[in-house]
Predict the 3D structure of the following.
Amino acid sequence: MSTTTRTTGGAIGASLDRIDGPRKVTGTAPYAYEHRVDNPLYLFPLRSEIVRGQVTGIDASAAEALPGVVVVVTHENAPQLADTGDRELAILQSGEVAFRNQYVGAVLAETFEAARHAAGLVEVSYAEEPHEAELREDGDLYTPEQLNAGFPTDTEEGDVEEAFSSAAVTLDGRYTTPMEHNNPMEPHTTVAVWKAGDLTLYESTQGAHPVQRTVAKIFGIDRNRARVVAPYVGGGFGSKGLPHANTILAALAAQMVEGRPVKFAVTRQQMFTGVGYRTPTIQKIRLGADSEGRLTAVTHDVIEQTSKIKEFAEQTAAVTRSMYATDNRRTTHRLAALDVPVPSWMRAPGEAPGMFALESAMDEMAEKCGLDPIEFRIRNEPEIDAETGLPYSSRNLVACLREGAERFGWRDRTPAPRSHQEGRWLVGNGVASATYPVFRLPGSRATIRYEGDDKYAVEFGAADVGTGAWTALTQISADAIGVGVDNIELRIGDTAFPFASVAGGSSGITAWGSAIFEAARVFRERHGDNPSEGDEVQARTPNNPETENYAMHAFGAFFVEARVDVDTCEVRVPRMTGVFAAGKIINAKTARSQFMGGMTMGLSMALHEESLVDGRFGHVINQDFAEYHIPTNADIGEMDISWIDEDDPYVNPMGSKGIGEIGIVGSAAAVANAVYNATGIRVRDLPITPDKLIQ
Amino acid sequence: MRPYKYVRAQDVDGAVATLAEAPNAAFLAGGTNLVDLMKLEVMTPDMLVDVRRLTSDRVEGLDDGGLRIGAAVPNSVLAADHKIRSRYPALSQALLAGASGQLRNLATTGGNLLQHTRCVYWQDVTTPCNKREPGSGCSAIEGHNKNHAILGASEHCVATHPSDMAVAMAALDAFINVQGPEGERRIPIEELHRLPGDEPQRDTTLQHGELITSVDLPPVEFFSNSKYRKVRERASYAFALVSVAAALDIEDGIVGDVRIALGGVAHKPWRATKAEEALRGEPASEANFRAAADIELEDAQPLRDNAFKVPLARNVITRTLLDLSEEGR
Ligand SMILES: Cc1cc2nc3c(=O)[nH]c(=O)nc-3n(C[C@H](O)[C@H](O)[C@H](O)COP(=O)(O)OP(=O)(O)OC[C@H]3O[C@@H](n4cnc5c(N)ncnc54)[C@H](O)[C@@H]3O)c2cc1C
């Protein structure tokens, strides 16, 4: 779609090495905490030891007497925020405590050690009120107005009850997923400094501009007086998509020591409160089918939690609205508002827990219908997107299932559960589908400037959270402008550059790449093929009129071999196949890593991750990596990852769909389905640990 | 974390004397357990006496044919020692099943034996815990207790001992050599760790200031037919749900002698003496192994979340003994 006549082309699709790779492996890429600042202070937070109530007294005398302690910040002395509408972020404005481990203060000291020591010496007293911090099916539930990303809360088509009563085969399943915590390698980090009313944040974030806008509003300053710098980010998985209270705490404390930078990196333990998490879900799915195995009715009813201080409603059943064809369908979401931290985005919010339930139920239903689970899915492949009534811009789920079956060797599977044993291992195979919508966030702009010597600068504020976006965007820039990748100097990760939307919803490449293409088009229009040094244009992500004509989603399929030890019920996954139909793949190397990361996280969701809340105390008690398990290298076997060539002219100029999240969507179900095939035991409550299998 | 003084003693006598005069001091070896706990303020010593270079860091032969392991021998070195691997394979396997490569390089034999019992509530200073604050109550008994004890616990504490190495040493009849303010002693490993009873704050029978200098393994021939099996939720880097160390001597299909110790089930490495007793002189059969395991587990008192450990322990004991009877034939 490039209009230039200088197209060299071919950068998109190349397996380019990461441009930021050498800087990262040599330790020269500065992450937020590592930016060199003069004369910093170190922050260690104080966190509430009750779940709900009021701070009634703070004795900081012992802490203040320690050498090196500069100030103990509490609600008694903290500066006022200009906007306290967001109660997650309006910290230290009163003594109110809304959840366990909420920030009630902070110590600033000359060293990290002094700050941490002093924090342990501050005595906070409380008036405690009764609390409810655990999700219960029989608790008080309410209906949110809408769900995350604007999805409707409930949907209904046809007459489900009537359809169930006449169905030849029915299934009634209850599935649960636990609370899970995003734990990027780099914990949330802020270095904040105020100078003459200007705020600078070195921030670990998925979106420099979204942070800038939020802090400007909260501190009541002009946007252009807040600068957010985030060139290198060590992962986010959604938790860094929106600023959380840790960022505000650092900036608020820094206001009290005008001119001195304040450094705050949350500890791994502190990652388990206050930077978001995936809500636990309780999901009921009913399926009805005719004697041919065609779905006649589908219902998906979800119960999940939010915080009393701010609503987050995960769109868990939204995926069921379009995944398979049926004439009768109902989806609902109900929330319990609890005295808990605010849930937020965690890789594929909605799709990840929702597809665990749906794809487990599909596996169960296939067996009930006497059909191979792949065949059962193919029979229920829809013609159009039921949610919007639009045709798909491209939908290649069936191709992924077929291609994956071939690569994996699905035909060798023994369909009867617990029918294949090798030594002490029960062996089973499972399959599940994947999907993820093509989100297109508005408002991003890109600047292209000719800097002479055949070099083009491309600038916008986007954050590369470790996905490889830096590299992929350089490739896109090269093809859009019509030069080689070596002629592109991509500058990102700073609000000094034009606005860029958040690296979330797998939308980055679509949003920013479209802006680059638009800017390149305008650049050639204005400056032609032989620009002068300094020629520059800025353009915005254009609207895509095709979104009115087509539903746009990526698809995929997972195949898993699970082995379960007969004696111990330890579950191991020696191999996993993932095939994706996600439009044009910009960079094969970094894309493969994204798919692999998603699948690894899906395996982690299936077998390991679970944040355990003790209702008496109100917080997660397995708050470190010895107790909260994620897979080790030894847990990951062969990862066979591929994609089919998909030519989708409607999604964006690159023809690409997002790939950051789809790897986790459905992969947990594929593991559960494989465990069922191995053992004959259907585990509907994640994670699948030996205690749930041993008999 | 509180500030503390760091001192390096000249020799064992000096280290012991320093601690004798400092009631709040602790020995520091690899620090992989102690320093973590200090960061959480679960342990708050005011002085650390570095003992890593004071005791032997070698594995040496004893006159009786046994082996002496210096307290400073790193876990990784001990696991790789060819005498250990051939004569006491369960010990090498247990070490390699523990922690991670980096931790094993730093962790010492003495420190591993004395790593503290684990419990998430103990590690969280904001929740009541009798081990941390005697009399404050046990949060685990009515809390999340999947990883907790099924044997030998008390109403005051249900924590488990996490060491893999110590379980193997318990099965292999190790002796612990200790030097303290009152001189030297030699303690059978059975008597080193203790059950919580009404003093859950005490993990071991050592007195303040007693330093482990070495560990002796006896010269028992059939210990070369020994094995360690650790059950864990992920393939590496996880504490045991249940583990078994066993050694088996079979002649003509009859159990001549046997050692069984369990990990992950109690406040100490659990020597399964009842199961051993039931097996001596009996045919080495799956049914007998299973019956012996049942006898040992008869006294199990599972909590809300850990009833699964009973069948799991039974299965792993049975399987490990079966493996040994096949290999030892
Ligand atoms: C993430 C993680 C995972 C782990 N996983 C496992 C696992 O799967 N299996 C397992 O068995 N272990 C595991 N461990 C624990 C590990 O084995 C211990 O931390 C280690 O063995 C302790 O040895 P150290 O030399 O570092 O002891 P230190 O931390 O130095 O000391 C531990 C204790 O022993 C005392 N001490 C040390 N040496 C002596 C001595 N000679 N005499 C008297 N007292 C002494 C210290 O005062 C302290 O109280 C894990 C640890 C971590 C951090």
Q: What stands out?
A: Chain B has a mean pLDDT of 97. The radius of gyration of chain B is 19 Å.
